[in-house]
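Help needed: design a sequence for this.
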């Protein structure tokens, strides 16, 4: 007598979100950035998750909720994940380890941004009282990925900072129970910098190195000086040229170490990132501030032209160095 083959059950992403406690957004980000699971695709290209996938996601979420960075556990086997879960129960909640209550001395950090990652990682590697809980794409992913009380400090890299950004950041601080958020900015409105000390937010002018981050963490709860804002003027052209390089391109170029030991690609990429940030900032100011619209329109145009000239310079250097772009 023949038996019918057992058909494996598969689930849509909405069902997996309910079963695992992870939002569909976080599921997609974890798949894209960390390859935590590889769901199959239906005929209409919709994700379909196996029960094994769901079980793995449940374990991963529990570890992340207890202070493990997703990047550090994403590639573990199911047996290794289960071992980590078993060890959680062996840790006393009052022994001063990461994941205990707010009386411990460990500062648990959530990172949003690319430029600051290496500096914060280096600092955490050399200081047993600092722990990076996770690295996130944006505030939404941060809030959806961590349990309330699991992060005390947020480092948030945001090229431009406006008044309407402050309530959004404050809500994130309150939602996850953080103590403070450090926002690393390139350009900001003066009134924003005046408001941040009383909002639970400390604004730090980019670029910032490991020493600056260490100083900020060492003065947690105290206002950190944001520095002066400079005024810049350029020769204006008539139109805004298109961008030659994406933000990802500039980040890649800034990390290049050419064989000829020329550091120009790295320096030019750093300059361009600042120009792009100011170009976006001045564009928003042009529409926000009608009183000074003409001035900010001038700044927007001239910054864009300067950016385009520097992009051409970078392209020439990359070609000379034999670097593909």
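Sure. Designed sequence:
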């Amino acid at each position: 007598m023949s038996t019918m083959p057992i058909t494996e059950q598969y689930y849509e992403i909405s069902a997996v979100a309910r079963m695992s406690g992870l939002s569909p957004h976080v599921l997609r980000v974890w798949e894209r950035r960390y390859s935590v699971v590889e769901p199959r695709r239906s005929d209409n290209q919709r994700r379909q998750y196996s029960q094994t996938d769901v079980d793995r996601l449940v374990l991963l979420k529990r570890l992340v909720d207890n202070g493990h960075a997703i990047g550090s556990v994403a590639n573990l086997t199911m047996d290794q994940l289960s071992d980590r879960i078993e060890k959680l129960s062996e840790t006393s909640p009052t022994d001063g380890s990461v994941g205990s209550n707010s009386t411990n001395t460990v500062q648990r950090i959530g990172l949003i941004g690319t430029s600051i990652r290496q500096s914060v990682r280096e600092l955490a590697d050399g200081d047993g009282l600092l722990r990076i809980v996770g690295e996130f794409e944006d505030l939404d992913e941060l809030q959806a990925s961590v349990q309330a009380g699991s992060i005390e400090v947020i480092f948030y890299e945001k090229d431009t900072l406006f008044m309407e950004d402050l309530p959004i950041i404050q809500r994130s601080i309150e939602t996850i129970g953080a103590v403070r958020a450090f926002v690393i900015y390139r350009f900001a409105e003066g009134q924003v910098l005046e408001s941040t000390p009383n909002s639970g937010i400390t604004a730090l002018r980019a670029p910032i190195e490991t020493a600056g981050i260490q100083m900020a963490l060492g003065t947690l709860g105290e206002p950190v000086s944001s520095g002066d804002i400079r005024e810049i003027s350029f020769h204006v052209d008539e139109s805004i040229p298109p961008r030659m390089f994406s933000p990802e391109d500039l980040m890649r170029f800034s990390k290049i170490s050419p064989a000829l030991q020329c550091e120009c690609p790295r320096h030019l990429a750093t300059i361009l990132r600042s120009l792009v940030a100011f170009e976006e900032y001045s564009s928003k100011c042009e529409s926000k501030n009608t009183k000074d619209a003409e001035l900010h329109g001038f700044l927007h145009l001239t910054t864009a032209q300067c950016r385009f000239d520097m992009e051409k310079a970078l392209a020439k250097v990359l070609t000379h160095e034999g670097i593909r772009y």
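The chain has 13 helices and ten strands.
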